[in-house]
Each structure stands twice: as structure tokens, then as C-alpha cells.
Fold this sequence. Notes:
The structure holds 2 protein chains of 2 kinds.
Chain A: H1 4-31, H2 44-50, H3 54-86, H4 91-102, H5 109-120, H6 125-130, H7 140-164, H8 168-176, H9 181-190, H10 194-210, H11 213-218, H12 225-234, H13 240-265, H14 284-310, E1 314-316, E2 320-323, H15 326-332, H16 337-368, H17 373-385, H18 391-402, H19 411-422, H20 424-435, H21 441-447, H22 452-463, H23 465-481, H24 486-489, H25 497-506, H26 510-541
Antiparallel strand pairs in A: 1-2
Chain B: H1 4-22, E1 30-34, H2 38-50, E2 57-61, H3 64-74, E3 82-86, H4 87-96, E4 119-131, H5 132-137, E5 158-161, H6 168-196, E6 200-201, H7 206-212, E7 218-222, H8 223-231, E8 236-239, E9 247-254, H9 265-272, H10 276-282, H11 311-329
Parallel strand pairs in B: 1-2, 1-3, 5-6, 5-7
Antiparallel strand pairs in B: 3-9, 4-7, 4-8, 4-9
Helix pairs in contact in B: 6-11
Amino acid sequence: MSARGPWAAFWLVAGAAALFLALPVGAVAARSLMGAAGQGTGLGAWAAAFRGGALPEALLNSVLAAGLAAAIATPAGFLLAYAARCSRLPRWFRAAVSALTTLPMLLPTITYGFAIVYALGRQGLVTRLLGWQPFDIYGLGGLTLGYVVYVLPIAFLLIRNALGYVDRRYGAVARLMGDSPWRAFRTTLLRPLAGPLAAAFVQSFFLAFTDFGVPASVGGAYKTVAGLLYERMLGSLPDFGVGAAIAVCMLLPSVLGFLLLRRLERAEVRYDRPADDLPPPPCPARDALCAAAGLLAALFTLTLFCTVALVPFVEAWPYALTPTLRHVADVFADPGLRLVCANSLAAALGTAALCTLLAYAAALVTVRGALPRPAKTLIGAAATVSGCVPGMVLGIAFLLVFSGTPLSHTLALVILCNTFHFLSAPYLMMKGALEKLNARWEATGMLMGDTWLRTVLRVVTPNARDALVAVFAYCFVNAMVTVSAVIFVAGARTAVITSKIKELQHFARFDDIFVLSLLILLVNLLATALCRVATRRAARRSLP
Amino acid sequence: MRNRPRTRLLPALAALALLAAGCGGSDGRVVIASNADAEVVAALRQALDEGGFRGRYLIQTLGTAELSGKLLAEGKAIESDIVTMSTYALESAQAVHPMFAALDFGGPRPLAGDDARFRPLTAQEGAIIANLRMLEEHALPRPKSLKDLADPVYAGFVSVTDLRSSSTAWLLMQALVAAYGEAGATDVLAGIYRNAGPHVESAGAAPLRKVRAGEVALGFGLRHQALADKARGMPIDVIDPAEGTYALTESLAVVDKGPAANARALPVARCLLRARPALLKTYPTPLYHGEAAEAAGRPALPRVFPQPLTTVLLAHHQTLADEARARARR
């Protein structure tokens, strides 16, 4: 059996990861050994990072808050994905659940924190409507809430994608054999989903753990490690050495996450061909639960979203509520806006293409390539670890390595930086989908004289089409909203919309931030709608 | 078979995007990186446009943290030809990578600072910001000094920034140290932190945002930003503290790129200083010999910290602030 195809995919991913992930992250890690304030060498930076006990405390705080958020987002994401894919609720309702659950993903994270303050704060929309403040938004409570808003869409997407590849016929068979509904649910749905559920948990955890935007606005006195990293690495007296030491500590959870996912791989259940034409059996209790979950999520998202949509159209929230288009006019008066928008679109399209390609190649290697185990482990580890590198660290790492090379200040570098910033979620999405597909296709294809690559192109790819489109859309949308890494890499001529947002944040012009967020939302809605049309048209064409 | 073109599309698209993105290099324009506020940037643009540089420059605005990150990581390889930001931050970047050129083009003489590499552009001042509606609603007295902010009557109603992450907090720290000495300043600051509770912020603009949103009643932030809010008709007022109003200067510097330098960088830098009269309106502190600011916009008690504002002093003040924070938690 020739293994040229899998090896080609391996070298593609390994080469790219070595150059654009290992090298930059290695450069940062090396900084941590150059001592504090970049002077000399030694463990000075590590000693400074651990002095005063702030770091261990912040690490524990972050693990707790991010763990809590992941523990809420994973079951909630499962329930909502289940409502969207496996209930007998009306089609429009299920579509609305999908759309509203993923809506926060289409907005830059900076906006959530403010949306929470503007909705649930002392003078917030909800507080004013209710007449009292539901709960104190600062500290662990607000932080967890913000994280859940941030990570729920990705947990939902990972699980919903995987659900699409679970064969419903097994459920029908289980019921025919007289299994209780709970037992049938457990053996034919929960067990095959163990991998994707764990992936959703791990991914949610990573996202929350490395996020800086939410703690900055609602963290209060609750110190997170991302906040500490920001303060030491880029605070009023920036120190890359200490920052690097903290960043290295932040990589530890990714190792644990990777090991957890590895353990669960053994329990994978595979299917010949996903059958989603089988309607779920009638079950009013299940549908009622799904409807309640859907309504609750919709209400929650809409509350936050209404705030974002309302604030920029009044003079000055919350004291001058006269409607105005002044903030919109202000934003569009900027002569540089067109270039910035064009840059953003180019960067997002490029990122989506490259990231989908790499995530697919990486998932093919780890799930469907007949390669030695260490090779697979290496690729899986690279793709997973990328999720635990905070964006800010990756951005600075790119500067350290690529500054002064022909790549610096180009959109190409922006695309590469984004790609490795997001890679882990798309990889997990692709992996979840590919794991569910029959493992014997490649062998069959080879017996029939096809190369591995041809089997992948002719058989695997069409069957993984939905996941590919979903990953493409995910990367596009993320590239449109990301701030943390890209802010360092984008140059004066290659600035993107979110660098504009960051700048407005610096000037405290939050009305304008919300206007730009709405603009980004519009682009993202359009992009996801296009992807959905593409999926549907392709589905119609490829019906047997 | 039908799906083959689409699977080829992805790599093709990726390659194309990378190629297209690789193009578009230098076009001779002078790149100015700045963390200055919108009014400053508008004044700089106007000065350059009127000075004949229209279309020959590009201003890239960044947050303070991002800009210092870029300076430290890139050194001379930074894309910009000119940088404007806090003088102390420029000095600290210069200490890590010698990267700025001497500005030997004459022009007006600065009142303070003798480093030929930096020319001051603005002076950022701090002030107590009050949300009048909140003060009234919660029957809170109007504070007169920074020390008043430590009064337990304001518990939960104050927002300030942390000196580790924001240089705006340094304006507060300078005022406290100058008025009460280091031990006294730490005491007052601990009281303020205790009152601020969850509202000790990392970003300089955050206290103003919280005051504006009615999350708190009082904050410490940049004076001119609060004055702008007041001018927009918000129920916001600026209180100049009895301890005095301190300032941090922002300067411009030209990156020393050797033979690769843009020949227009120095002329553009010189032209930028023509924005001073316009800047004096928003930041009413004279910085050069022969300048005068209108009395109307000036703070009640402008003060200058007795020691030079170096990074060493900032690091020392940070340890005092850390001590205050630790004490506030106990």
C-alpha cells in the first residue's frame, strides 16, 4: 500500500506548523529564559513571574472560571444541537435555534463584555426594564456568563456537526429491540458523541482560558491568568520575559486537553454513511424540553444582542436616549474605512481557505491516514496546542520571528497568523466529522486502483462536505471578528476592521465600536447565508 | 467526480490569497504610528495636509499596549518611520533597542526634557470624573480631593485603573505621592482600591466608561476625555483634585532606519510640531518656550512631579501600588 498521499498531507501540516507555530512559540519560550526585562540569561523572568504568588492564584482562578464555563456550555450546546438536529420541532424553529445560538460568534468578543454591562449593569437595559439588578455582574458570576456567551456557539457547532454524522438507524433499531428510551439515548447517541462532547468541553475551556476581553470588562477583582499575562507582557512597563514565562504556564492545560482527547479516541463509533433522512420518533417530552432550551437561549441572546443594536443609535446611553444616526455617520466618515474593509474581507477569505485546508489535512492525517502513530500524534498535538496559545502571545511571537523579513506587514502574514490562531477548533470539527465515517473506504478505494488522495477527493470529501463548509464559515467569521493576534501583525497598509475597533476601544468610543460590530455582523450573516446556500445546492446536486 | 473542482478550489484560493497578500509593499509614504486620541490625530493630519504632505503619509493608530508591544518586539524593523506615544515609553523602548534618531531640525525649544530624540506633543492630565446623576441618586457628597475617594461613603461607587496595566494610574499615583509621601500615598490608595472593589480597571479609558454607563459615580481618568463627554451634554463633570493635577507628556520620535530611511521622515516630523497651537486647545499645558494656554481650559492646580518620570520611578511606584492593592484585599 502506498502511503504517499498521507505523507504529503503530513508534511504540509507539519511544515506549516513548524514554521508558523513551533518557531514563533519557541521564540517566545526562549524569551522566558533571557531573564527579566530582557537582560542577560537565566531564570530571572520565571522568578519574577512567580514572585508574590499572583501567578498560581490567577492560574487556579482561570482554571475554575473556564472549567465552569465549559461545564455549562457543553451540556447546553448539546441540548441545543439536539433540539436543532434530533427533535420534531418545526423546521423554522430549529433553524432559529441554530441561528441565534451561533449569533454571538459573529460579533467581536470585545462587544460581549460591554453588552453584559449595558444589559445587566446598574443602568442596563434589563435592570431598567425589571427595576432591579438581577445579580452582581462583576467577578466569577459575570466572568462565567461572559465566557459562556463566548464559547457556547463553538460547543454547539462541534456537537451539531458530529450529530449530523451519527446514524439514526441505530436508535430506531435500539427501540425495536425494546431498549428503554434512556438506554437507547445513551448507547446510540451519547456514546458515539463522547469524542465530540469532550472536544467541545476542551475547546470551550481553551477559548475561555485564553480570552482577555471578557475579564477586562466584567472580571472585577477576580484575577485571571490572561489578565495577568496582559498586564505583565504589555502593561505600563512591558516585560516580554515575564510574559513569556506566564504564557508557557498557560500551555499546560492544552497538554492535558490533548491527552484527554487521545484517551477518548479509542471509544470511536464509525458509520457507513450518515443517514439523516430518518425522522426522529415522536416524543412530546423531548420536544418540550428542546423547545424550552431553545427559547431560553434565544431570549438570552436577543437580550444581549438588542443592547448592541440599540446603544449606537441613541445619543449617549443611558442618559441621552434621543435616537440618532450620528455615530453611524462618524464611523463611515473615516476615509480609510474602505481599505480596511477590503483588507478584512481578503484576510477573512484567505484565512478561511487556508485554515480549512490545513484543518482538513490535519484531520485526514490523524483519522484516516495509514501513518505511524508518532506522526499522527505529532499532527494532533500541533493542531490542539495551537488552541491554547493566547492570541496576544502568538501575535508578538510572529513579530519576534517575522519582523524584517519580506513577509512582515503583508496580508499573507495576517492570514497565516489567523490560521494558526484558530486551527484547533476547525481541526476538532473536521476530526469529529471524519471519525464518524467508515474507516474502510481508503482500503476499498486502493483495491479498486485509486490512490489515497483520489479516494479522499472522490469519497471522503463529498461525505464530509457539510463539515468542510461549516469549518470554512467558522474560519471566515472568526477572521472577521478576531482582535488579539492580528492587531500586532497587521501593518499600516494591511489594517483590518478589528484593528479599528481596538483603536476605538482605546479612545473609549463604544458607540462607534458597536456600529463597527454591527457592520461585521452584517458581513458575517451574509457569508454564513452564502455558505448555507452552497451546502443546500450541493446537497441537491449530489442526491443519488 | 462532480465534487472535484470544488476540492481543488480551496488550495487554489488559499494560494491566490497568499500571493495577492504578498504584494503591496512600500509606496514612499511616511508611516506614523500613534496611540494618540482622535483629536490629536485630527490635528496632526491637518498640520501635515496644510504643510504640503497630503497623500504622502499614513497614520496608524494603536492602543498603548499594542504599540509598546510592537516597539519592544520589532525595534528598528518596525514598519513606521515616526512614532508618537508616552515619553517614558519611548525612553524605555530606546533603552532595550537603540532605535530612534536625533531630531536636529531646530524649531521651538521644549520647556522640559533634554533628549534630542524626543519632541513633546501633548501633556495628558488626570482628573476626578463624576456622574452627577449617580451622585444625586445615591445622595453622595461631591469629593474635593483624591483622598476623599478613599472615604468609605463611596464604597462600590469608585473606579480607577491599576498602575501595572495603565499609565493613567500614574497620574493618580504622582498626585498622592507628592501630597502625602510614599507611606501616606499607599494608605490613601489602599482606601481607594477598597472602595473600587471590582472596578479597578486595566484600561485607561475604562473608569470613564463606567462613570458614563452609570456603573459607578466617580472615576479617575484622562481629563480631556471627560471634558469632551461633558461638552456632549452628558451628566458628567470634571473635578480637579485638591492634591493638584499632574501630567504625562507624549512625544514624537523618528525611527533610525539608516540608509533605508524614508527621506521625508524628518521633514514630516518637523511639520507635525505645527499642530501644537491646535493641540493646546484640547491639552492646555504649554510644552515649548513661547507657548501660552488659555486660562479657561487649564486645571485648577497644575503640578509637575518633583522627580523625572523615568521607568525606574514607574517601577518603584508600581511596587507601592501593589502593596496598596494587597492591603485593600485584607
